[in-house]
Design goal:
The chain has about 240 residues and is an alpha/beta fold. It is built from nine helices and seven strands. The radius of gyration is 17 Å and the shape is globular.
Length: about 240
């Protein structure tokens, strides 16, 4: 396949999980790819999967100043940008009374502020046409306990689908979002979910399983490709039916 042949793409949080699989599939579809990762270790692990031709950028997704540096590296590597997948994020789940200001600010910095200012920094580099895809979540819709701050950050991203679409369409930039349900990535282990917890989670999904990162990646490819020029300001839910109940 070559649906992204010649396109220049940046995938944030592209060194693991959904981001890594999306980067792999973008390369297979002919794109030139850059990924960001939060640590040297994660970047080296991704290099083993994606190979030497990818542009690897170590960056803190919640640091506003770092987003300008990412844009500078993209300019040097590619000269411009055709597709951006805003995927880097943090999932922090705990009861309302367990939150403090520092943790609150960290979630909003990584999930909302950093992505917003990355888009701002990249504006001069976007081609016409170009595509931005935001990774949101069904948590902003379903009211899951202990997800209050995570859901709020993803809800903030969902507002950008439409507001940025209205503002950036004149530049030829389409903005859309994917809204995943539970996906089989390292995230569930990082938040302390054991095998029993995963089975309990899967029991809530009509499809009877968690999604695979490849299923998310295929949708991002569609949004980023020339097959979706009339899809603007849309959010596609990919959750095995979980949010329908």
């Amino acid at each position: 396949m070559s649906r992204l042949e010649g396109k220049r793409a940046l995938i944030t949080g592209g060194t693991s999980g959904i981001g890594l699989e999306t980067a792999r599939q973008f390369i297979a579809e002919g794109a030139r790819v850059a990924v960001t990762g939060s640590s040297a270790k994660s970047i080296e692990e991704a290099r083993k999967v994606l190979g030497p031709d990818v542009v690897y950028i170590q960056s803190d997704a919640g640091d506003v100043a770092a987003q300008k540096k990412v844009a500078e590296e993209i300019k040097q590597a590619f000269g411009g940008l055709d597709a951006l997948f805003v995927n880097a994020g943090i999932g922090d789940f705990k009861p309302v009374d367990a939150w403090d200001e520092t943790s609150f600010d960290r979630s909003f910095a990584i999930n909302v502020k950093g992505p917003y200012f990355l888009i701002q920094a990249l504006l001069p580099l976007f081609a016409n046409p170009a595509s931005i895809v935001l990774n949101t979540s069904i948590n902003a819709h379903i009211g899951m306990p202990m997800s209050s701050i995570y859901a709020a950050t993803k809800g903030a991203l969902q507002t950008l689908i439409r507001t940025l679409s209205g503002e950036l369409l004149s530049r030829g930039i389409r903005v859309n979002a994917i809204s995943p349900g539970p996906i089989a990535t390292p995230l569930h282990g990082k938040i302390g979910m054991d095998e029993a917890g995963i089975k309990q989670l899967e029991a809530q999904i009509p499809a009877g399983r968690r999604g695979d990162p490849s299923e998310i990646a295929k949708t991002v490819i569609f949004f980023a490709s020339d097959e979706a020029p009339f899809i603007i300001g849309s959010e596609l839910t990919i959750d095995g039916g979980m949010s329908t109940l």
